[in-house]
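Changelog note: in this version the structure field was regenerated for every chain. One regenerated record is shown below for reference.
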Amino acid sequence: MSELTAPTGREPELRAEPRDDGTPPRALVIGATGYLGGRLVPRLLEAGYTVRVLARHAPRVAAFEWGSRVEVVEGDAGETEAVARAVADVDVLYYLVHSMAAGKDFENTDRIAAQTVADAAAAASVARIVYLGGLHPDDAPLSAHLRSRVEVGEILLASGVPTLVLQAGVVIGSGSASFEMVRHLTDVLPYMPAPKWVRNHIQPIAVRDVLHYLLGAARVDATVNRAVDIGGPDVLRYGQMMNGYAVEAGLHQRAIAALPVLTPRLASHWVNLVTPIPRATARPLVESLQNECVMKDHDVDALIPPPAGGLTPYRRAVALALGRVQDDTIETSWQDAEVSGVPSDPLPSDPEWAGRMVFVDARSVTTSASPEQVWAVIAGIGGANGWYSSRLLWSIRGLMDRVVGGVGLARGRRSRAVLTAGDALDFWRVEAIEPGHLLRLRAEMKVPGLAWLEMRVSPDGDGARYEQRAVFFPKGLAGRLYWLGVLPFHGLIFPGMAARITAAAVASAPQPEPVAS
């Protein structure tokens, strides 16, 4: 059974209930390109909903398999006009955004977005809001990120629109940040020095069960306006979660030592260096584990019955997630969330550079390989395939980025075979892709400026022309000094990269059969 063969709208209580005029109800998903939103949308469609999404970039939505089946309103959750357009004629609104890594002012950002959505939903007479918050104790200090999620839930509950806040703890599924943290810590470390929170009790929940509750929330009685806890059937210590993963992955049990000196800040640095999770994402995850996160009650059962086959045990959820990883069929990933502090706007067209300081490194190579063969190499770049130049130099650059809190190279790529707009690719993000012709990557590494890497291929006689361009818009003196500092690195990396990409394309060409004498 695959990871998400759980109820996806086929059960009667999860099917969309038609409007009074017999038409399908409309669901708005805010956060549709994120980890859970990207999985919820196709299940809403399957359940019979008409789906609209609010997203910053329509091309990112179009890259999903379901992208052509939804209506897209471009904008941000904090933009009043965009939200007003999005909530028009909506029956149920799913609010699945929170600023996991949105800088120091994230609490205010979350507050403004939640209030904007709450006000617009009330004005548009939306029938139901569904929000996924965080499982938390009532009698203990909360981390800033968890406190912000609680506040968002309170804002939505006070909107005047019936709201159901589902409060979940650690979500286990292929590509989830929580699962990836457990996976990489356990895979890499035979001995784990850990903060004292490894002894805290946690109630993890499988992603399939979160989706079950999200779908069921749309059908809850209109009088319900409250928060409820959701969780799986197992209550474990974090150390037990790691060793449960080890068993399912065929590894030896890990020795874990709880060290009181490891603060959340130090632990997030540790997670940043050992796993692909960048420090900005690791810290809220680590901070949320300082408290015991266990369901206080099971009131949710009276509102949304558990799945027909029961809730998924932790080790079963791990096994299903591992199957997705091994089969290269991860549906969505924590990587889908964009990194704060990097450009959100696309690379300006060349004429718009007039009057601006810009540095460019351009390379061009002609090859006997066909455009299709060159493109196959370009489309497979990054991750396990690397960057077709000095692995040592790329590794050093990735390590430098990790040390200063960036994503580094360990993030890899979600799929070995598929690359779409919006995908993370090591410390880049796919900004634009035109299959067979263009791949443009936007830097998400820590640099004093804005950077892009572009690869193009076009026919050239009987072969192809490969064009490669690195573009950097420096920010202040630091940006100019940075470019001068990396020029030697570029001189070693970029010429070899262009040459090896075209050489790999030539090597991939089928060889002629030997002619018998």
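Spot check on this record: The first strand starts at residue 26 and ends at 30. The longest helix spans residues 476-508.
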